[in-house]
UniProtKB/TrEMBL annotation:
Protein name: Thioesterase family protein
Annotated keywords: Hydrolase
Family annotation (SUPFAM superfamilies): Thioesterase/thiol ester dehydrase-isomerase
Gene Ontology molecular functions: fatty acyl-CoA hydrolase activity
Entry annotated with the keyword Hydrolase: yes
Domain Thioesterase: 60-148
Family membership noted in the UniProt record: Belongs to the thioesterase PaaI family.
Lineage start: Bacteria, Pseudomonadati, Pseudomonadota, Betaproteobacteria, Burkholderiales
InterPro entries in the cross-refs: ACOT13, HotDog_dom_sf, PAAI_dom, Thioestr_dom
């Protein structure tokens, strides 16, 4: 039997999570992370290349710290979406309050290719959402969809 498709989020929840992620988290705002997909089982976003995001000596390559921070943020967003999907019986406002204690406890990034381009895509999914810890997998993609970096992380959720 095919598993049921995850429920879609209400507009109020999507707007609240986008505002929290894109505007209220200062580092995400600095990176210019913009959510493109927000579902209980998958999230995606993009970053546009800007001069302040390149490495000091690399000029046209996105800095590795930007890639790492972006993937970490996306893993956290995937956990937020999974928690939001798990508690669809609550109001959107109540679900948005659940993210106050979310934090990274382990992060691994594998850099595969130089990040050169005008725009980059990031995506993430939760592999396991436990009562205290969530495990995620993330990808950082170039403009043509080429895999530039991957990440795996664990987040405290309680």
């Amino acid at each position: 039997m095919k598993p049921a498709a995850p429920a879609a989020f209400e507009a109020e929840f999507v707007a609240g999570l986008k505002e929290m992620f894109e505007q209220h988290i200062s580092f995400n705002r600095l990176l210019g992370l913009r959510i493109t997909t927000l579902a209980p089982d998958r999230v995606a976003a993009h970053i546009d290349m800007r001069p302040e995001l390149v490495g000091h000596f690399t000029y046209n390559r996105l800095h590795g710290g930007v890639i790492s921070a972006g993937l970490d943020a996306m893993g956290g967003l995937a956990v937020m979406a999974a928690i939001g999907g798990k508690h669809m019986d609550e109001t959107p406002a109540a679900r948005l309050q659940r993210f106050a204690r979310l934090g990274t406890i382990d992060l691994r990034i594998d850099y595969l290719r130089a990040a050169i381009g005008a725009q980059f895509s990031l995506q993430a999914q939760v592999l396991r959402l436990g009562s205290r810890v969530a495990s995620t997998r993330m990808e950082f993609l170039g403009q043509q969809g080429e895999l530039l970096a991957t990440g795996a992380a664990a987040y405290i959720v309680s």
